[in-house]
Amino acid sequence: MHYSDRIFRPPYEANTVLLQVTVGCSHHKCRFCNSYMDVKFRPEPMAQIEEDLRELEKTRPNTDRIFLLNADAFVLSFDKLKNLAEMIHLYLPKVKTITMMARVSNVKNKTVEQLKELRALGINDLYVGVESGDDETLKMANKGVTSADALEQLKKLEEADISYLAFYMMGLAGSGKCEQNALATAKLFNQLKPAAISIPSLTLFQDTMLYQDVLDGKFVETSELERTQEFLTFLKNLNINTMILSHHVTVNTPIVGKFPEEKERMIAELQSAIDNFDEEKHRQRRERIYSM
Fold first, then answer.
1. Which of 129, 256, 284, 287 has its CA 20 to 30 A from that of 152?
2. Rounded Cα distance, 132 and 89, in Å
3. What is the pLDDT of residues 158-197, one digit of tens each?
4. Which residue from 163, 131, 154 is spatially nearest to 144, judged by alpha carbons?
């Protein structure tokens, strides 16, 4: 198998076969991210991908789920993704789901009809980095999209019956703007149908542009308490059927549950954490986090 540079996959794909079809990130400009800072984006050659599939045909013939690397493999054109899916089914006929990371902008260059065709080929369960529903925060973070873009493109996925998990990064707005960020993000998701919302918490790494913004006085990091209060505000204002998955290593108060059935339980847990909050303990813990 061909794997190069850094490999990142969602924790939920720990047992999924990984097939590298791109290297790096097509955007490479988010101010908070250091995942592919020194990696130039490129698609992998089809001949190399086919070689890896031949290997998997021998070593993992019963594979029923496959994750396409790297940061946003869904950036590939409709034709390339269609060809990839067909090749995967040729060598691994038991595959039912082909999943990958996606940016909101990756959906834009595909029509609903094309998305439906990709869905019929097994492309499903996308991981979409929404990060925020607040346009000020999105602009500051250099995501390259607006909340209106996210709404439009994610609705296209829904129309094509493509399931997706959306990421929301608490703390990204900065100190003093957490409530604004939580309310705007809840408003966005209330218009959508994500299968799940994964909620990590911003951690500043020294090789990111956002870390430099802190040094330059352009960005003020949220306290640990502010993050938890933001999470509470978000949950109080969210009113859809989904799963809340906030148990990432960056989260100071892990919460997982089905929404809205467990909404009150999750709110109570967060409120209890806020009532007994130890800022110093959580700050020391964050300082020991070295990667996303």
1. 256
2. 35
3. 999 999 999 999 999 999 999 999 999 999 999 999 999 9
4. 131
